[in-house]
Amino acid sequence: MTVTAFRHRPDPDEVARVTATAAELLEVLWGRASTAPASASQLRVLFVLEHQEGINLRSLAHSLASTPPSVSRLCDRLQAAGFVERVVNPSDRRELRLRLSGPGRTFLADLRERRERELRAVLGGMPVGKRVALLEGLDAFCDAAADRAHDEVPDPRSRTA
Protein backbone atom coordinates (compact mmCIF):
# COMPACT_ATOMS: atom_id res chain seq x y z
CA MET A 1 0.00 0.00 0.00
CA THR A 2 1.50 3.30 -1.07
CA VAL A 3 0.19 6.23 0.91
CA THR A 4 1.73 8.98 -1.18
CA ALA A 5 4.01 9.76 -4.07
CA PHE A 6 6.87 11.69 -2.46
CA ARG A 7 8.25 14.91 -3.81
CA HIS A 8 11.84 15.90 -3.19
CA ARG A 9 10.82 18.17 -0.28
CA PRO A 10 7.49 17.02 1.19
CA ASP A 11 5.68 19.71 3.16
CA PRO A 12 4.77 19.17 6.84
CA ASP A 13 1.07 18.65 5.99
CA GLU A 14 1.90 15.76 3.66
CA VAL A 15 4.30 14.21 6.16
CA ALA A 16 1.74 14.62 8.96
CA ARG A 17 -0.90 12.83 6.85
CA VAL A 18 1.42 9.92 6.05
CA THR A 19 2.62 9.71 9.65
CA ALA A 20 -0.99 9.63 10.89
CA THR A 21 -1.74 6.82 8.44
CA ALA A 22 1.32 4.93 9.67
CA ALA A 23 0.20 5.41 13.29
CA GLU A 24 -3.26 4.08 12.45
CA LEU A 25 -1.73 1.03 10.76
CA LEU A 26 0.48 0.52 13.82
CA GLU A 27 -2.66 0.51 15.97
CA VAL A 28 -4.11 -2.23 13.75
CA LEU A 29 -0.91 -4.28 13.92
CA TRP A 30 -0.58 -3.75 17.65
CA GLY A 31 -4.19 -4.79 18.08
CA ARG A 32 -2.97 -8.25 17.13
CA ALA A 33 -0.59 -8.04 20.10
CA SER A 34 -3.44 -7.61 22.56
CA THR A 35 -3.06 -5.08 25.36
CA ALA A 36 -5.50 -6.97 27.59
CA PRO A 37 -5.97 -6.66 30.54
CA ALA A 38 -5.05 -2.96 30.30
CA SER A 39 -7.00 -0.34 28.33
CA ALA A 40 -5.30 2.29 26.18
CA SER A 41 -5.71 4.85 28.98
CA GLN A 42 -4.24 2.46 31.51
CA LEU A 43 -1.29 1.81 29.18
CA ARG A 44 -0.59 5.54 29.09
CA VAL A 45 -0.41 5.48 32.90
CA LEU A 46 1.96 2.52 32.88
CA PHE A 47 4.24 4.19 30.31
CA VAL A 48 4.45 7.38 32.39
CA LEU A 49 5.12 5.45 35.60
CA GLU A 50 7.85 3.50 33.87
CA HIS A 51 9.73 6.72 33.13
CA GLN A 52 8.76 8.71 36.24
CA GLU A 53 9.12 6.26 39.09
CA GLY A 54 7.54 7.55 42.29
CA ILE A 55 5.42 10.27 40.69
CA ASN A 56 2.46 11.52 42.73
CA LEU A 57 -1.12 11.43 41.49
CA ARG A 58 -1.38 15.16 40.76
CA SER A 59 1.82 15.11 38.65
CA LEU A 60 0.66 12.00 36.84
CA ALA A 61 -2.67 13.64 36.04
CA HIS A 62 -0.80 16.70 34.75
CA SER A 63 1.44 14.49 32.56
CA LEU A 64 -1.64 12.83 31.09
CA ALA A 65 -3.54 16.14 30.68
CA SER A 66 -6.31 14.65 32.78
CA THR A 67 -7.92 15.18 36.16
CA PRO A 68 -6.74 13.60 39.43
CA PRO A 69 -10.08 11.78 40.03
CA SER A 70 -9.97 10.17 36.56
CA VAL A 71 -6.34 9.16 36.97
CA SER A 72 -7.01 7.89 40.48
CA ARG A 73 -9.69 5.55 39.13
CA LEU A 74 -7.28 4.31 36.45
CA CYS A 75 -4.67 3.67 39.13
CA ASP A 76 -7.24 1.86 41.30
CA ARG A 77 -7.89 -0.57 38.45
CA LEU A 78 -4.18 -0.97 37.72
CA GLN A 79 -3.47 -1.59 41.39
CA ALA A 80 -6.25 -4.21 41.50
CA ALA A 81 -4.64 -5.89 38.47
CA GLY A 82 -1.31 -5.90 40.34
CA PHE A 83 0.45 -3.54 37.90
CA VAL A 84 0.79 -0.44 40.12
CA GLU A 85 1.84 0.08 43.72
CA ARG A 86 0.98 3.08 45.89
CA VAL A 87 3.66 3.91 48.41
CA VAL A 88 3.54 6.52 51.18
CA ASN A 89 6.04 9.32 50.66
CA PRO A 90 8.41 9.11 53.66
CA SER A 91 8.86 12.89 53.74
CA ASP A 92 5.11 13.65 53.59
CA ARG A 93 2.93 10.82 54.82
CA ARG A 94 -0.18 12.46 53.31
CA GLU A 95 1.20 11.95 49.81
CA LEU A 96 1.20 8.70 47.90
CA ARG A 97 3.80 7.89 45.29
CA LEU A 98 3.01 5.62 42.35
CA ARG A 99 5.29 3.06 40.81
CA LEU A 100 5.14 0.04 38.57
CA SER A 101 5.07 -3.31 40.31
CA GLY A 102 7.09 -6.30 39.13
CA PRO A 103 4.07 -7.71 37.27
CA GLY A 104 3.51 -4.26 35.71
CA ARG A 105 7.06 -4.22 34.36
CA THR A 106 6.69 -7.78 33.10
CA PHE A 107 3.41 -6.87 31.37
CA LEU A 108 5.05 -3.93 29.56
CA ALA A 109 8.04 -6.05 28.52
CA ASP A 110 5.74 -8.78 27.16
CA LEU A 111 3.57 -6.23 25.37
CA ARG A 112 6.61 -4.63 23.75
CA GLU A 113 7.88 -8.03 22.62
CA ARG A 114 4.53 -8.87 20.99
CA ARG A 115 4.40 -5.45 19.30
CA GLU A 116 7.98 -5.73 18.08
CA ARG A 117 7.25 -9.17 16.64
CA GLU A 118 4.48 -7.63 14.52
CA LEU A 119 6.78 -4.81 13.45
CA ARG A 120 9.61 -7.19 12.53
CA ALA A 121 7.24 -9.05 10.21
CA VAL A 122 6.39 -5.80 8.40
CA LEU A 123 9.95 -4.47 8.34
CA GLY A 124 11.23 -7.77 7.00
CA GLY A 125 9.18 -7.16 3.86
CA MET A 126 10.80 -3.77 3.21
CA PRO A 127 13.95 -3.22 1.11
CA VAL A 128 17.04 -2.53 3.24
CA GLY A 129 17.49 1.01 1.91
CA LYS A 130 13.93 1.92 2.87
CA ARG A 131 14.47 0.51 6.36
CA VAL A 132 17.57 2.69 6.73
CA ALA A 133 15.64 5.76 5.60
CA LEU A 134 12.79 4.89 7.97
CA LEU A 135 15.20 4.49 10.87
CA GLU A 136 16.85 7.84 10.18
CA GLY A 137 13.49 9.58 9.86
CA LEU A 138 12.08 7.97 12.98
CA ASP A 139 15.18 8.88 14.96
CA ALA A 140 14.73 12.55 14.03
CA PHE A 141 10.99 12.30 14.70
CA CYS A 142 11.60 10.84 18.18
CA ASP A 143 14.00 13.67 19.03
CA ALA A 144 11.48 16.32 17.93
CA ALA A 145 8.58 14.53 19.65
CA ALA A 146 10.54 14.19 22.90
CA ASP A 147 11.24 17.93 22.85
CA ARG A 148 7.54 18.63 22.29
CA ALA A 149 6.50 16.14 24.98
CA HIS A 150 8.45 18.17 27.53
CA ASP A 151 6.61 21.37 26.55
CA GLU A 152 3.74 22.63 28.72
CA VAL A 153 0.89 20.12 28.96
CA PRO A 154 -2.53 21.35 27.76
CA ASP A 155 -5.31 22.33 30.18
CA PRO A 156 -6.50 19.08 31.83
CA ARG A 157 -10.13 20.13 31.38
CA SER A 158 -9.66 19.80 27.62
CA ARG A 159 -9.49 15.98 27.74
CA THR A 160 -9.75 13.01 30.04
CA ALA A 161 -7.63 9.94 30.61
Your description of this structure?
- It is a single chain.
- With 161 residues, the protein is mainly alpha-helical.
- It contains six helices and three strands; from the N terminus they run H-H-E-H-H-E-E-H-H.
- A three-stranded antiparallel sheet has the order 1-3-2.
- It is globular and about 60 Å long.
- The model has no long low-confidence stretch (mean pLDDT 87).
Main sheet record? 3 strands, antiparallel
Distance between the termini: 33 Å
Question: What is the β-strand count?
Answer: 3
Q: In percent terms, what proportion of residues is strand?
A: 5-15%
Strand neighbour order, sheet with most strands:
1-3-2
Helix- and strand-based class? mainly alpha
Over all CA atoms, what is the radius of gyration?
19 Å
Order of helices and strands: HHEHHEEHH
Q: Give the uncertain stretches in residue-range form.
A: none
Helix fraction bin = 55-70%
Counting DSSP H or I runs of 4 or more residues, the number of helices is: 6
Q: How would you describe the shape?
A: globular
Mean pLDDT: 87
